[in-house]
Predict the 3D structure of the following.
Amino acid sequence: MVEDKRKLELYEKALDWITENSTSRADLYDTLSEALGMSDDEIIKAQFSTLTDFMDNEFDLQISAFVQSGGNCLVIPLPTNRYNLGTKLGSIGLGVNDPLLITDDSDAPVRVKLMTENSTGCHFIKLFDKNDNLMDVSNMIQRVMNSVEEIRPELRRRLVDGKYHNSEELLDDMAELTSQVGEYKKTFYFPLTGTLDDGFGSTDTVSNRYLRNFKSEIAELIEKEQSNDLNNMKDYFDEDENARQKMVSAKWGIEEINQTLYGKVDFRLRVPFTAEEQEKVRDWIEGQNSDGFGEGLEQREIETEDGDLFVSMWNFGDDYFIYDEEEMAAHLAGQSLGGISQ
């Protein structure tokens, strides 16, 4: 077993090497073997295992942005929000709508360079290039910080091992790892309504059949509403702490069943809800839907040849419902027996 002093020396050497070279874990292994004069493979592996366990205790990217415009410059700790970014950029004559692409080119009108003294941060920085802007980087850091705690050690290991080539790959893998944490799934369904504005002061409610013609556009609209939010929707649930702790994620979407388009919420859970918790979750979903969902889904138009289409996940009618899978199956069975079609 490696002594604590030896572990610290090993850690410091590794951290220095990673910071300077943004190396992979395999390269680090070889370098430590040579730098520390270790030839016994088993001893090296044991010590390297201790090192990586030690390093995996933390997942702090510690990234800042160096922004230079003309003779003015500033350092911005990340992540930051749009308002704070605008305030800081204003001090050197820039705004959040200015092109703030990641580049170390000294000839660029605005130079934005990412900096870190953290080993994981070095690998994270490599995911961004001149096609990414400063707000993209800040938002991605925030998403990593908001990730489910259970996935962070594996996410960090994959990042250090060079699994990701860009931020999109990291984001996709975060979603996959998160889904694996949620062993249990719970889905709630509800009806959708649509309103068509012809642009001349007339609005009409459209049929579900009409909504189905714009299924992909509606799905994209709902996805965009959630992707613009750096938090997962489950983070806004505060009706019951036990139920909240069970949630891994909550995602709104749509699903076509028996030629009818429904809205839905898919929950990934660590353990199932109790009956009491489920009712609180149901009430919360209704509250989210009746408020327009997100930042105002009902106000986001879908352009059609007939006018602007607006979609809502809630209505005042007595036929409005929020059903789980079993209740939805019974509802559909009742429609089938009753000969109801839409």
Notes: The CA atoms of residues 86 and 142 lie 17 Å apart.
